[in-house]
Amino acid sequence: METMDQAGSTGSTASVQVASWALRISALATLVIGLELWSGGGGGALVPVHMVLGIVAIIAAWSLGIMQLRRPGGSRGLALGALVLGVLLPIAGVGQLSFFGGSGQLVAQLVHVVLAFAIIGMGEACAGRLRRAQPATAR
Ligand code: HEM
After folding, report:
1. What is the distance in A from the centroid of ligand 1 to the CA of 21?
2. Low-confidence ranges of the chain (pLDDT < 70)
Protein backbone atom coordinates (compact mmCIF):
# COMPACT_ATOMS: atom_id res chain seq x y z
CA MET A 1 0.00 0.00 0.00
CA GLU A 2 1.25 3.51 -0.82
CA THR A 3 2.16 5.56 2.25
CA MET A 4 1.55 9.32 2.46
CA ASP A 5 5.29 9.88 2.03
CA GLN A 6 5.47 7.75 -1.12
CA ALA A 7 2.36 9.42 -2.50
CA GLY A 8 3.90 12.84 -1.97
CA SER A 9 7.25 12.05 -3.53
CA THR A 10 6.33 9.76 -6.43
CA GLY A 11 2.79 10.94 -7.16
CA SER A 12 -0.31 9.01 -6.11
CA THR A 13 -2.98 8.32 -8.74
CA ALA A 14 -4.99 11.26 -7.39
CA SER A 15 -2.10 13.72 -7.47
CA VAL A 16 -1.20 12.67 -11.03
CA GLN A 17 -4.80 13.19 -12.12
CA VAL A 18 -5.09 16.55 -10.35
CA ALA A 19 -1.84 17.81 -11.92
CA SER A 20 -2.80 16.40 -15.31
CA TRP A 21 -6.25 18.07 -15.34
CA ALA A 22 -4.84 21.29 -13.89
CA LEU A 23 -2.41 21.37 -16.83
CA ARG A 24 -5.12 20.71 -19.44
CA ILE A 25 -7.68 23.16 -18.07
CA SER A 26 -5.26 26.00 -17.30
CA ALA A 27 -3.39 25.56 -20.60
CA LEU A 28 -6.64 25.60 -22.60
CA ALA A 29 -7.92 28.69 -20.76
CA THR A 30 -4.52 30.41 -21.16
CA LEU A 31 -4.51 29.62 -24.87
CA VAL A 32 -8.07 30.94 -25.38
CA ILE A 33 -7.20 34.18 -23.54
CA GLY A 34 -3.88 34.40 -25.43
CA LEU A 35 -5.73 34.18 -28.77
CA GLU A 36 -8.15 36.87 -27.56
CA LEU A 37 -5.17 39.09 -26.62
CA TRP A 38 -3.56 38.39 -29.98
CA SER A 39 -6.70 39.46 -31.82
CA GLY A 40 -6.59 42.74 -29.86
CA GLY A 41 -9.41 41.94 -27.42
CA GLY A 42 -9.55 42.30 -23.63
CA GLY A 43 -8.02 45.78 -23.52
CA GLY A 44 -5.07 44.55 -21.47
CA ALA A 45 -7.26 43.55 -18.49
CA LEU A 46 -6.95 39.90 -19.46
CA VAL A 47 -3.13 39.92 -19.44
CA PRO A 48 -2.76 39.29 -15.66
CA VAL A 49 -5.41 36.52 -15.83
CA HIS A 50 -3.51 34.98 -18.75
CA MET A 51 -0.25 35.14 -16.77
CA VAL A 52 -1.68 33.56 -13.60
CA LEU A 53 -3.33 30.71 -15.57
CA GLY A 54 -0.09 30.24 -17.54
CA ILE A 55 1.85 29.98 -14.28
CA VAL A 56 -0.66 27.38 -13.00
CA ALA A 57 0.02 25.37 -16.21
CA ILE A 58 3.78 25.65 -15.61
CA ILE A 59 3.47 24.50 -11.97
CA ALA A 60 1.31 21.55 -13.09
CA ALA A 61 3.90 20.58 -15.76
CA TRP A 62 6.71 20.88 -13.19
CA SER A 63 4.79 18.68 -10.71
CA LEU A 64 4.28 16.01 -13.38
CA GLY A 65 7.98 16.27 -14.31
CA ILE A 66 9.08 15.77 -10.70
CA MET A 67 6.57 12.96 -10.04
CA GLN A 68 7.70 10.95 -13.07
CA LEU A 69 11.39 11.60 -12.21
CA ARG A 70 10.90 10.06 -8.77
CA ARG A 71 9.43 6.88 -10.22
CA PRO A 72 11.86 4.05 -11.02
CA GLY A 73 13.13 4.68 -14.56
CA GLY A 74 11.92 8.29 -14.54
CA SER A 75 13.30 10.50 -17.29
CA ARG A 76 15.68 13.29 -16.27
CA GLY A 77 15.35 14.77 -19.75
CA LEU A 78 11.59 15.22 -19.40
CA ALA A 79 11.91 16.72 -15.91
CA LEU A 80 14.70 19.07 -17.00
CA GLY A 81 12.84 19.98 -20.19
CA ALA A 82 9.71 20.91 -18.23
CA LEU A 83 11.81 22.93 -15.78
CA VAL A 84 13.70 24.88 -18.46
CA LEU A 85 10.60 25.52 -20.60
CA GLY A 86 8.74 26.70 -17.51
CA VAL A 87 11.45 29.28 -16.85
CA LEU A 88 11.71 30.43 -20.49
CA LEU A 89 7.95 30.67 -21.17
CA PRO A 90 7.14 33.60 -18.81
CA ILE A 91 10.37 35.37 -19.85
CA ALA A 92 9.30 35.12 -23.51
CA GLY A 93 5.72 36.10 -22.61
CA VAL A 94 6.58 39.21 -20.62
CA GLY A 95 9.55 40.00 -22.89
CA GLN A 96 7.28 40.47 -25.89
CA LEU A 97 5.59 43.40 -24.14
CA SER A 98 8.73 45.49 -24.72
CA PHE A 99 8.39 45.13 -28.51
CA PHE A 100 6.34 47.76 -30.26
CA GLY A 101 5.54 46.33 -33.65
CA GLY A 102 7.90 45.17 -36.40
CA SER A 103 9.14 41.71 -37.24
CA GLY A 104 10.83 41.41 -33.80
CA GLN A 105 7.44 41.35 -32.14
CA LEU A 106 6.20 38.66 -34.49
CA VAL A 107 9.24 36.50 -33.73
CA ALA A 108 8.79 37.08 -29.96
CA GLN A 109 5.11 36.07 -30.21
CA LEU A 110 6.03 32.97 -32.17
CA VAL A 111 8.74 31.98 -29.66
CA HIS A 112 6.25 32.42 -26.79
CA VAL A 113 3.61 30.25 -28.45
CA VAL A 114 6.13 27.55 -29.45
CA LEU A 115 7.44 27.41 -25.85
CA ALA A 116 3.84 27.23 -24.57
CA PHE A 117 2.99 24.25 -26.78
CA ALA A 118 6.31 22.61 -25.89
CA ILE A 119 5.63 22.75 -22.15
CA ILE A 120 2.08 21.45 -22.64
CA GLY A 121 3.50 18.53 -24.65
CA MET A 122 6.23 17.93 -22.07
CA GLY A 123 3.68 17.89 -19.24
CA GLU A 124 1.45 15.49 -21.19
CA ALA A 125 4.44 13.22 -21.86
CA CYS A 126 5.23 13.15 -18.12
CA ALA A 127 1.56 12.39 -17.32
CA GLY A 128 1.57 9.60 -19.94
CA ARG A 129 4.62 8.00 -18.33
CA LEU A 130 3.01 8.20 -14.90
CA ARG A 131 -0.27 6.68 -16.16
CA ARG A 132 1.56 3.84 -17.89
CA ALA A 133 3.41 3.12 -14.63
CA GLN A 134 0.12 2.74 -12.73
CA PRO A 135 -2.11 -0.33 -12.67
CA ALA A 136 -4.88 -0.21 -15.32
CA THR A 137 -7.58 0.05 -12.64
CA ALA A 138 -5.97 3.22 -11.22
CA ARG A 139 -6.11 5.20 -14.51
C1 HEM B 1 0.14 27.37 -21.40
C2 HEM B 1 0.77 28.51 -21.34
C3 HEM B 1 0.56 29.68 -22.30
C4 HEM B 1 -0.05 29.75 -23.53
C5 HEM B 1 -0.74 28.62 -24.31
C6 HEM B 1 0.07 31.12 -24.00
C7 HEM B 1 -0.40 31.59 -25.20
C8 HEM B 1 -0.34 32.90 -25.61
C9 HEM B 1 -0.84 33.41 -26.88
C10 HEM B 1 -1.50 32.55 -27.97
C11 HEM B 1 -0.60 34.73 -26.90
C12 HEM B 1 -0.94 35.70 -28.04
C13 HEM B 1 0.13 35.68 -29.10
C14 HEM B 1 1.39 36.26 -28.56
O15 HEM B 1 1.38 37.46 -28.24
O16 HEM B 1 2.37 35.51 -28.43
C17 HEM B 1 0.05 35.09 -25.65
C18 HEM B 1 0.44 36.37 -25.28
C19 HEM B 1 1.03 36.70 -24.10
N20 HEM B 1 1.39 35.86 -23.08
FE21 HEM B 1 1.08 33.87 -23.05
N22 HEM B 1 0.73 31.85 -23.03
C23 HEM B 1 1.06 31.02 -21.98
C24 HEM B 1 1.72 31.34 -20.81
C25 HEM B 1 2.13 32.61 -20.46
C26 HEM B 1 2.84 32.95 -19.24
C27 HEM B 1 3.24 31.94 -18.15
C28 HEM B 1 3.06 34.29 -19.27
C29 HEM B 1 3.75 35.17 -18.27
C30 HEM B 1 3.82 34.94 -16.97
C31 HEM B 1 2.48 34.80 -20.50
C32 HEM B 1 2.49 36.11 -20.89
C33 HEM B 1 1.97 36.59 -22.07
C34 HEM B 1 1.98 38.00 -22.45
C35 HEM B 1 2.52 39.15 -21.60
C36 HEM B 1 1.40 38.07 -23.71
C37 HEM B 1 1.21 39.30 -24.57
C38 HEM B 1 -0.08 40.01 -24.25
C39 HEM B 1 -0.26 41.22 -25.14
O40 HEM B 1 0.33 41.27 -26.23
O41 HEM B 1 -0.98 42.10 -24.70
N42 HEM B 1 1.93 33.75 -21.20
N43 HEM B 1 0.19 33.97 -24.89
Report:
1. 20
2. 1-11, 100, 134-139
